Amino acid sequence: MPSPQGLPLAGLRIVELGHYIAAPFATRLLADLGAEVIKVEPPEGDPVRGWGSTVEGHAVWFSVHGRNKLSVTLDLKKEADKDRLRQLVRRADGLVENFRPGQLERYGLGPDALHAVNPRLIIARISGYGQDGPYRDKPAFGAIGEAMGGLRHLTANPGQADLPPPRCGVSISDDLAGMYAAMGLVSACWQVKGNPEARGRVIDVDLVSSVFSLMEGMLPEYGLFGWVRQPQGAAIKTAAPTNTYPCADGKWLCIAGNSDLIFRRLMAAIGRPEAAADPRFATNGLRCEHVAELDAMIADWTRTLPAAEAEAVLERAEVPCSRLYDMRDCAEDPHFRARDMVMPVEDPLLGRVLHPAAPFRFDGVAPRDMVRWTGPAAGAHNRHVFEELLKEGEG
């Protein structure tokens, strides 16, 4: 397989017992960073291989979701395949799993059993509610993490109490938990590194806590004052004008004009310089008090222009702004292309496909070099791993 030259996790070996989203997302990040990730799938493959659009039966999403990973298939209900997993664990630095709590133990592969094979193994466990607590055994998917972690309450639009608050459009709680699991695993590997006496650790990450960690100052505000932050829609309660405004072509323009200097530039750009001199708008605090009037003023201007034209006007005035991009906008944007944030990649299963770049840059490594191969077919690396890596073919 292509070597992860110049990447910081080259030489780190991770076993993934992941399905659906959270654990595979964690290991995708680790693999993008150069780790050797061995994804262990059931014989029928990760269920996510059946999600979304397909090309000749191959899921398009999995091209990204499984990239840079070695795929092997094992049936963990069979003792011979459990033995193979133990052999992998013996040679690994870490393992990431996202079974429901207790499932790994029911396989006879809980942390005690794995540490008996490899005492230095770092085990990252991702679940809905965590490995303990009264809710540990309840089933959960990403939407539940959003709901219970406090995020879904905030995505409502004020004045639309008859409509359910929308999800953000992606599996944000799974992705967050995956990021935290990857961070925790690398941190624990650093602690073990270079210390021959160090022992492995177990990392407990859950969807609810991952979302809850993003709630900024809301918990101390509640504890001190009894405040419960309510949905703000597209605005920000503590800054003005910062909102999303309708344009003549039915698109939306996000504008952040909340510093005093930028506010003056914004008012000049929309033909309302007198508003910048109005004492009611002299400071951010005062603008927050009169935000409805300001938002109406800005919206009256944005409605007269298509979003791209309004954006161009404000960019010339150095006012932070952006159209609300859809995927076509992202894929075709010159900045995305120039920074290789959108990359054409040859996928043996799909043909030429677009991949998002890894979200980190390292000097000396081109973004394209971080995508070493695309998501493989289930079990594509059985022979390489079981016969070469484990040297099962030797008498």
UniProtKB/TrEMBL annotation:
<dbReference type="InterPro" id="IPR023606">
    <property type="entry name" value="CoA-Trfase_III_dom_1_sf"/>
</dbReference>
<dbReference type="InterPro" id="IPR044855">
    <property type="entry name" value="CoA-Trfase_III_dom3_sf"/>
</dbReference>
<keyword id="KW-0808">Transferase</keyword>
<protein>
    <submittedName>
        <fullName>Formyl-CoA transferase</fullName>
    </submittedName>
</protein>
<dbReference type="GO" id="GO:0008410">
    <property type="term" value="F:CoA-transferase activity"/>
</dbReference>
<dbReference type="InterPro" id="IPR050483">
    <property type="entry name" value="CoA-transferase_III_domain"/>
</dbReference>
<dbReference type="Pfam" id="PF02515">
    <property type="entry name" value="CoA_transf_3"/>
</dbReference>
<dbReference type="InterPro" id="IPR003673">
    <property type="entry name" value="CoA-Trfase_fam_III"/>
</dbReference>
